[in-house]
Amino acid sequence: MEPLIRKIILATDFSEASQDAIRYAVWMAKSLQAELKVLHVFEPSGWMVPSPYYFTPGFEQWVDASLDKTRQAGKESLEALAESLDMQAETIFAEGPTGKEIVRIAAEHRADLLILGTHGYTGWNHLTLGSIAEYVVRHAACPVLTVKPRQPS
Fold first, then answer.
1. Count of domains forming the chain
2. pTM to 2 decimal places
3. What angle, 0 to 180 degrees and rounded to 10, lies between the N-to-C axes of helices 132-139 and 98-108?
């Protein structure tokens, strides 16, 4: 019988909330002898600044330089994470709307399982910040495992 899960994509934002998801992804990939890909999506739209600031001389160059620096830091963090795992893992760095990019990349790479952490926002934070995990669960073509952060005991 053909295994159901051969390719796992772990989507991470490097937050505390993603730490347990990393442990699950590595454990599952090892247990199932599945390929593991680690994905980080950089969303530059979160860097939007009110339009009057664009009229300040040099501001646009400052924003571009900051974005480039942050983008590079994201790539380096992704590589460091992959190297820290107790197994071989390919990295994927993407840019765009986070939920949409996770779903697109999972389909493009024909993932059998997506794993991501959730921040567990509720109420106003959930309404204002949205939920990437919720979007991914609703739109991904493959099964999705969401991992809530552990509550301190």
1. 1
2. 0.84
3. 40
